[in-house]
Protein: NADP-dependent oxidoreductase
Amino acid sequence: MKAIITHSYGDPDQLTWTDQPDPKVGPDSVLVRVKAVGVNPVDWKVLAGYLDPLMNVHFPLIPGWDVAGVVERTGLDATEFAVGDEVVGYVRKDEVQHGTFAELVAAPVRTLARKPAALSWQQAAGLPLAGLTALQVLDRVGVTKGETVLVHAASGGVGSLGVQIAVARGARVIGTASERNHDFLRSLGAEPVTYGDGLAGRVRELAPDGVDAAVDFVGNGVIDVSQELLRDTSRVASIADNDVLEKGGHMVWVRPDSAGLAALGDLADAGKLTVHVDTVLPLSQAAEAFRRSQEGRTRGKIVLEVS
Structure:
C-alpha cells in the first residue's frame, strides 16, 4: 500500500509518500480501504515531537487518527462490521506508529462507527476526532437545554461542531471568531463575538447575567475571561490550556468512543450536524496540509482524500 511516513520527529517537509507493507489485522479489528482522512492540529504536533512526553511514538511513523472508508476484511472476532460496510473512525491506539494516512488502515472496532449517510466521504473524514472532542467537552461541563454556553474558536474544526452539538441540545451559543467568520457562525446557529481585548464586555452585551458554561478550543489565556463571565467558575473546559486544572476547571483529552461517534452520525443524518470542509488535498500532499493546519486560520476541516 501507499502511505505517508516519517522516520523521525521534525517538520512537514520530511513527510514522504511511499510504499509500505499492508497492515496486519488483529482479532478485534477490521481492515479499512481508505477514502479520506481528516487532518488535525495534533497530527503536526506529533510530528514535531510535542507529544513525546505523553505517548510512545515509534518510527517509521504513519501519522493520522481520523479515517473514513470501506471495510475490506474483518478480524477473527470483529463481528460488529461486515465486508463492504462504510465506516468512520478516530483510530487512536495505545502507541503511535500505524496511523490513518495510508491506503489501508487496521482499525480496532472500538474506534469505529458506521458512516453517516448524510455526509460525503470528505465530510465524514473530518468528523471523528473533532466531533468527539466537541461532544466530550460539552458533556464534561454539562451543557443542557436552555443554558447559555460560550464557545472559544467557534469557527474552527472542533468549535464549529461544538456549536452545532450545543444548538442541537437546545442551548444558546455565543461563539468567538474573527469578523470574517461571523456570518458562518450565524449560519450554524451561534451569536458571534470578536475575540481579543474587551471580550468580556462584548459577551456581557449579549448575556448581561453571564453564561452557564464555557469551552476553550484555542488556548491563548481565555480561561480567566471565561471564569469572569461564568456563574459557576468550575463549568469551564479546555483542550489547549493545562492551567484550567489549577483554576478549578476541566482538561479534556478526547477518547475513542464508538457510541459517541454513532451519536454524532445520528445528528448528521437528522440534519442537525454537518462538517464544513475548508480544504481538500490528495493524501500525497500531506505536508502541505500540515503547513496549512499550522497557520491556524482554517474554517472547519482540512481533509486528504485517496483517489
The chain is about 30% helix and 30% strand. The chain has a mean pLDDT of 97. The longest strand covers residues 29-39.
